[in-house]
């Protein structure tokens, strides 16, 4: 079965603006050969540290950015090379919810107008008219009818994000890119918004690409997980497998930092990563995780060399998963 969204070898390199680097042809490898798919009605969680390229991936999928190379197919149709003027239909089918509900809403636009905006921009007139559709959407996301003429400053963060979700639903999209939609919200409100997104998925069959820097946010929500580091996918698989038996040293380190409600279930302690995230303008040669990998220093010289000489590929981007578990079990934490 063709997946709803198929992303293959997607790359976005930004030219470096500083004069010294520009003359050397330097680029920031924000997204560097990323592949994954999202099935209809399913959720893919895209997780990783700040600066690893999650939002750039989301913006590429929305075609707010033009890819440097690679393929984006929706229902088998290539999107990566469409010109801006040909993107209108695609934009109906793929929508986005942003991290900061305050800055993604116009303070001078009423809530009703904000939700109606995609319908008007795409010249779509729903059967019962725009106002009725907006009222339906408001009801769907838990906003009251009297909120219609209110302005964003009168709303809490959680309510504003509900407006953002209603706006994203206005055109009945097949896929919504949710870029850290709950990370700016209080913890208690986060759960409400995630429950709302789950209910909407159950009712409408919409698919989500759900971006988060915190693995625990996607654990109970995503069907599949892609773990990103320095512009590349380190591990990709079904959520149950990734959480139950993580294989890449980076995934293991991230998971070891997720608090366990039951101390008895605590994994064998936290794996601390040394050093800072390298610059995406100058990533390590070979495996990009090499400079922080806790397994790498414990390998024999031949295996260590392979980490430098060739880029690991596949759904678990590590040459040495066979020894990683054992090495990590004996690594001082
Ligand atoms: N327009 C741009 N021009 C140059 N560099 C950019 C641009 N947009 C993003 N970058 C760089 O690309 C890298 C990835 O950025 P991105 O915003 O995609 O990361 P992220 O994973 O979403 O991070 P965060 O969790 O902080 O939101 C960063 O090093 C960032 O500085
Ligand atoms: S390829 Fe080498 S450096 Fe990269 S994650 Fe595996 S062991 Fe670590
Ligand atoms: Mg981001």
From TrEMBL:
Taxonomic superkingdom: Bacteria
SMART domains on file: AAA
Family per record: Belongs to the ABC transporter superfamily.
Pfam families: ABC_tran, oligo_HPY
PANTHER family the UniProt entry points to: D,D-DIPEPTIDE TRANSPORT ATP-BINDING PROTEIN DDPF-RELATED, TRANSPORT ATP-BINDING PROTEIN
Keyword entries, A-Z: ATP-binding, Nucleotide-binding, Transport
Residue ranges of domain ABC transporter in the record: 5-255
Name of protein: ABC transporter ATP-binding protein
Provenance organism: Streptomyces yanii
Molecular functions per Gene Ontology: ATP binding
Region (Disordered) location: 259-283
InterPro entries documented for this protein: AAA+_ATPase, ABC_transp_ATP-bind, ABC_transporter-like_ATP-bd, ABC_transporter-like_CS, Oligopep_ABC_C, P-loop_NTPase
Lineage, uppermost ranks: Bacteria, Bacillati, Actinomycetota, Actinomycetes, Kitasatosporales
């Amino acid at each position: 079965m063709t997946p709803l969204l198929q992303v293959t070898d997607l790359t976005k390199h930004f030219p470096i603006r500083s004069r010294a680097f520009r003359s050397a042809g330097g680029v920031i490898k924000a997204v560097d050969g990323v592949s994954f798919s999202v099935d209809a009605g399913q959720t893919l969680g895209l997780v990783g540290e700040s600066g690893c390229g999650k939002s750039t991936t989301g913006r590429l999928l929305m075609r707010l950015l033009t890819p440097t190379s690679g393929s984006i197919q929706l229902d088998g149709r290539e999107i990566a090379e469409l010109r801006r003027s040909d993107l209108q239909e695609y934009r109906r089918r793929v929508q986005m919810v942003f991290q900061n509900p305050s800055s993604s809403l116009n303070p001078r636009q009423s809530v009703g107008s904000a939700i109606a905006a995609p319908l008007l921009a795409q010249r779509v007139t729903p059967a019962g008219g725009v106002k009725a559709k907006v009222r339906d959407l408001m009801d769907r996301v838990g906003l009251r009818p009297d909120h219609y003429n209110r302005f964003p400053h009168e709303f809490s963060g959680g309510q504003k994000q509900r407006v953002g979700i209603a706006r994203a639903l206005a055109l009945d999209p097949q896929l919504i890119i949710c870029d850290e939609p709950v990370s700016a919200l209080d913890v208690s409100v986060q759960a409400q918004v995630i429950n709302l997104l789950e209910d909407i998925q159950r009712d409408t069959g919409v698919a989500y690409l759900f971006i988060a820097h915190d693995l625990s946010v996607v654990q109970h929500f995503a069907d599949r997980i892609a773990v990103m580091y320095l512009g590349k996918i380190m591990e990709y698989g079904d959520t149950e497998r990734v959480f139950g038996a993580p294989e890449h040293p980076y995934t293991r380190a991230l998971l070891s930092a997720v608090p366990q409600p039951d101390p008895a279930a605590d994994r064998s302690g936290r794996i601390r990563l040394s050093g800072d995230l390298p610059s995406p303008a100058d990533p390590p040669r070979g495996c990009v995780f090499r400079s922080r990998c806790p397994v790498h220093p414990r390998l024999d010289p031949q295996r260590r060399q392979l980490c430098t000489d060739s880029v690991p590929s596949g759904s678990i981007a590590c040459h040495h998963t066979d020894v990683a578990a054992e090495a990590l079990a004996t690594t001082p934490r």
